[in-house]
Amino acid sequence: MGGSLKENTIIKKMKALVYHGPGKKSWEDKTKPAIRESTDVIVKIIKTTICGTDLHILKGDVPEVAEGRILGHEGVGVIEETGNAVTGFKKGDHVIISCITSCGKCVYCKRSMYSHCVNGGWILGHLIDGTQAEYVRIPFADNSLYHIPEGSDEEALVMLSDILPTGFECGVLNGKVQPGNTVAIVGSGPIGLAALLTAQFYSPAEIIMIDPDDNRLETAKKFGATQTINNSRENAVERVKELTGGIGVDTAIEAVGIPATFDLCQSVVAPGGVIANVGVHGKSVELHLEKLWSENITITTRLVDTVTTPMLLKTIQSKKLDSKKLITHRFPLNDIIKAYDVFEHAAKERALKVILIND
Ligand SMILES: [Zn+2]
Ligand SMILES: [Zn+2]
Q1: Nearest bound ligand to CA 97?
Q2: From the CA of 107, how far away is ligand 1's center (Å)?
Q3: Torsion angle of the four alpha carbons 78, 80, 86, 87, in this order, in degrees rounded to the nearest 10
Q4: CA of 11 to the centre of ligand 1 (A)
């Protein structure tokens, strides 16, 4: 057949979930990623998942995501190839991919604020191609991946890429959950439930889950909520006051990301308490300083740093934390469009986290 050398170069292909602008996505052929920097590795995905953040991107709420971008920032896999400067990982190692990429050297990384790494941060499935694919390139691999101990249940560890450290760091740690305290968690989706599970490390006296979906509240009860409030038919503020002797909660965790749920947190927090925001907000909220100025409260915000991932891994390994119960559905990676459909209709499908398996 002849042809030039260029035409004969084999371009390796793979399948990936590609964003094509608001409302548009497809499962299609893409070029398999290659090492670009000496600190990169290429990971073959074993299991990945879909995040509420991916739905925000598809709605057009995250405009910096370019058309043609492969989505996904969570998953576990096996190392296929390593750059020359990578010392902590080798081909064949099984790894957890952190949703946050961190160089380990910049001013923010030195303060353990990996989320604001000047060379990384949340870039996967956002500013660079992500994990909803057969292969992914991970920059700064030495600081952005975690070894999976042999014999681990890898599916359970997918929850360590994002939702467990997010619920724990942004909700529980920032919210200063303490033994004997009262906690309200507004939003009983995967992130709210991750906060519920990890809040129990500190033995709070009450954890009140608030959500408009009865199925999710039922799940919350099974996961350790002491009280549940369906705010579609109950007055959540009155109910929280009733349950707390009229004073409100020590910690109010916002795990939705809309003005109404942040507002609810402002109404239920007790004097001296903390409002810990976890939700991704696209609209401004009203801050009720006319009520709160004298209440000694703290409001915290945070993008997950994933600095607690090694600790959370130990709690899963020792069975103190059962992260697998957050998984409700499983699909082959090839069926990711169907998986998105289920995840988009989470209430109807009773879906929490969906796992995609790359065989
Ligand atoms: Zn996520
Ligand atoms: Zn850095």
Answers
A1: 1
A2: 25
A3: 60
A4: 31
